[in-house]
Amino acid sequence: MAVSMRDLDPAFQGAGQKAGIEIWRIEKLSPVSIPKSSHGKFYTGDSYIILKTSASKSGALRHDIHYWLGEVTSQDEAGAAAIKTVELDAALGGRAVQYREVQGHETEKFLSYFKPCIIPLKGGIASGFKHVEEEEYKTCLYVCQGKHVVHVKEVPFARSSLNHDDIFILDTKSKIFQFNGSNSSIQERAKALEVVQYIKDTYHDGKCEVAAIEDGKLMADAETGEFWVFFGGFAPLPRKTTRDEAKSIDIVATRLYRVQKGQAEPVEIESLTRELLDTNGCYIVDCGIEVFVWMGRNTSLDERKTASGAADELLLGLDRTKCHVVRVIEGFETVMFRSKFDSWPQSTNVAVTEDGRGKVAALLKRQGLNVRGLMKAAPPKEEPQPYIDCTGNLQVWHVNGQQKTLLQASDQSKFYSGDCYIFQYSYPGEHKEEHLIGTWFGRQSVEEDRVSAISQAGKIIELLKFSATQARIYEGYEPLQFFVIFQSFLVFKGGLSEGYKKHLVEKELADDTYKDDGIALFRVQGTGPDNMQSIQVEPVASSLNSSYCYILHSGSSVFTWTGNLTTSEDQELVERQLDLIKPDMQSKLQKEGAESEQFWETLGGKSEYPSEKIGRDAESDPHLFSCTFLKGELKVTEIYNFNQDDLMTEDIFILDCHSDIYIWVGQQVEYKNKMQALAIGEKFLEYDFLMEKLSHQAPIYIVMEGSEPPFFTRHFSWDSTKSAMHGNSFQRKLTLVKNGGPPPMDKPKRRTPVSYGGRSAAPEKSQRSRSVSFSPDRVRVRGRSPAFNALAATFENPNARNLSTPPPMVRKLYPKSVTPDSAKLAPRSAAIAALTASFDKALPAKEVIIPRSVKGSPEAPKLSTEAPEPSPQGNSKENSVNNVTEEAPKPKPETIQEDVKEGETEDEEGLPIYPYDRLKTTVADPVTEIDVTKRETYLSSEEFREKFGMSKEAFYKLPKWKQNKLKMALQLF
């Protein structure tokens, strides 16, 4: 398409050069730029053009153009907006997708630019309207519809406007009320609260009150009564309501029109195929609620303008002026457009060049304008980051049928291609220990082992109360996080499982399992010592690649081969991997092009081999989808310009990064739906909704709300306090709106997360151990000793609790674990003996230390320096405890100076100490300000030994599964 300066409106010069939003208003049939301070303000009497520019990871700029028509804008202005949109597309190189937006029927993509909503203002510029500026605050009633984005419309302030299906917002001078229709969903109510927050900030300076009114709530509620007063008192709403969308147009059969001389001429078709579209013409595809205008690459600017006008006339004649109209250019069709065709080729032979874009850039450059944005930017060079703490603890199991065997540390990075493995990686998170449970499937592994691995990994996740992130990984598609966890990863050919061996027998295949004294060729890859890998390949010359280094061994001979395209860093990795594969043998260096005859003989002779680097699909810009999964069918809805607030705790969402797929599962998702999360991910890969050629073996992560790993949250502006809130989506957002933000988290920080640089970097002193709670190198924190806390728990008064709280009801499911030695010890005498031994010298007989009880409240009172007054009605048990020597006069208790905060008891690790009964979830007043996954760490050493029958050090040396069984048996979870 030829472009000249007369085709370009001066207002568009320099547009689309950087990411962001640009808006023009049609004034006197010409576009006029709108300042950023007025973005989001649309008047009902005007027409606007909106340009959204996005920068992809490759550095290229993408454009979407929308033209918005107010409900009372003039036909001339609407026509000018449509034509000027085509001109703007031409100025950007003729690649942008163009959308027509009608007030009240905007696309979700358009509304996502102006979150949480747009509220059109009455008035206009050229249409003869005046902008409304009221001196006194006007009470307004708005209706809100939408689960992911909110359509907001002002309705008459009358009872007849209310119904049971929608959400309504009543905005008064001093208070904002949200009325939730009884048939509305939790998600719709939560999204409407974002509109309440917008109105509060925009029109009330964030200072007015907010009230939520439930449809059908009794008038006894004060705020409900206050709401109905504005409508003249309470009266029941009608059961059935009529909406604007009374007539559905989804049933309209798909029709094809060709634009000829400004008119839409129908084309008779049996089925809709790509071959029907001619590159020299413009077409209209009528799909009911959406109408597409397709413009061939060889059409002129005037032809495209004519096609746009023909589509508007067609809809006007069909009385469907509120339909979405989307204009696409040949070669840049949207996924939605292509999905309407029965057949669409994977790639079309369209000569897409930079000519149009370059010519426009040259024209603008002559006028002294910066045209960098019109040319493709160079892709930024970034080192990939794993986004995970690499100082955690790794356990690996080999799967053999229905059994799994824990591998030794020396073997946990050595996998076989014919087998399946389960790995558990525990690492310090921001507020608690995080877990990544993964399954790895070798290329040659059998289905029986894969199913078993998934099942057994699921049991581990259930033991962790669904707080772990789950990963499904196939050989050859491992993400960077996987490699940095394992550091030195080796994959051998063959397998050791019974299922794999049985498969070889059934298929009559030779067993090529790796043998230490046989012929083996390994390709060495990775970006550094933190993520190096050796992959065994066929020992033939065609397996070589100029971009890699290789290790070849045969009997007593070992060769290292370096390709011409490798770097010194690659060659260093070979030496490191050689120490793992053949540590006691000297290798013979072979450089590409100067190999010895013995090297080629070992490989069976010379042959051609590639030079291109092998790699996974590059990560693309992420897309977020809300999904429903019913009877094996997956339905998804894309959420545009997403953020953390779009993740609803009742739903499941899919984050598609092309190379990785994340399934985010909310805390309030039903159990049966949680168990289908992996199936949802596999279905998503199978359907490939964005037609981006997703691999069925791409890694799938199951991410549970509240335990999101850093490699997931990096795609958001993440606030961990929001995911830690309780309640459903509506209750959480109501708290945010009323309080102005999320409540502070009470969970103690166990450990400072380290940078994501890998384990080779020297961590800080407090980060070197796998678990700080039992690190032998950690400096002892000055505070109350374990013996002191044991004595405090022994002497506490059980009657000192708040009498308004009912006594805790404890139902023991398992008998308490007791060792023979601990059963013989009297807890009180043992605690006193431990206390005596903890002091440098014995105290005089008359000086008795009596700690106050810490059981009634997390904040214990200070130890008094004066003796307590005698109780008029003494308890015999209390007297027997407090009076160690009856004949001796009651002494003044001494004050013990300790480096602890007021009202807090600490152990030698600096953690608060709580009585055992308050750490159980079945009691009436459990402790809340602790990490619930590590309840046992808050016990004193003596009470820990009493409950578990062993010391803390011995407990933490047990395997993780034994620790979990003990915790469950003692009801600490």
TrEMBL record:
Residue ranges, compositional bias (Basic and acidic residues): 887-903
Compartments where found: Cytoplasm, Cytoskeleton
Major location (coarse): cytoplasm
Region entry Disordered, spans: 736-778, 798-822, 854-917
Superkingdom field: Eukaryota
Name of the protein this chain belongs to: HP domain-containing protein
GO annotation, biological process: actin filament capping; actin filament organization; actin filament severing
Gene Ontology cellular-component annotations: cytoskeleton
UniProt keyword terms in alphabetical order: Actin capping, Actin-binding, Calcium, Cytoplasm, Cytoskeleton, Repeat
Entry keyword Repeat: yes
InterPro entries reported in the protein's UniProt record: ADF-H/Gelsolin-like_dom_sf (IPR029006), Gelsolin-like_dom (IPR007123), Gelsolin-like_dom_sf (IPR036180), Villin/Gelsolin (IPR007122), Villin_headpiece (IPR003128), Villin_headpiece_dom_sf (IPR036886)
Keyword Cytoplasm: yes
Pfam family membership, one: Gelsolin
Family classification: Belongs to the villin/gelsolin family.
UniProt feature, compositional bias: Polar residues: 872-885
CDD domains linked: gelsolin_S1_like (cd11290), gelsolin_S2_like (cd11289), gelsolin_S3_like (cd11292), gelsolin_S4_like (cd11293), gelsolin_S5_like (cd11288), gelsolin_S6_like (cd11291)
Residue stretches making up the HP domain: 908-973
Annotated GO MF terms: actin filament binding
